[in-house]
Here is the input.
Amino acid sequence: QVQLVESGGGLVQAGGSLRLSCVVSGRTFSSSFMGWFRQAPGKEREFVAGIRWGSSSTYYADSVKGRFTISRDSAKNTVYLQMNSLKPEDTAVYYCACSRDGSARDYDYWGQGTQVTVSS
Here is the structure.
């Protein structure tokens, strides 16, 4: 069983930065793919960024490329999402998720989410 706990959300002005953390408890696999998603009110959940646990290969949505950076610390079993140059349209609940088989299509575990609000 894997549990994911996000933290680091909050209220920030446009242009500011936040770093989200996702602590992974339970067994992780080098083949796992960890993703950050977000969901704004009235909108569908969307992929933001992802990282392969074993190789640290990273992937980003076009809307956040150059502004967000995903990373992981194996020793701390933690995945981070550094968010810079935040915009009001980045306002959403951000979720961490784990795809055990690394497909990045099917996610087996989800965190509870952390709210990010960017004021203009």
Summary: The first strand starts at residue 3 and ends at 7. The chain has a mean pLDDT of 95. The radius of gyration is 13 Å.
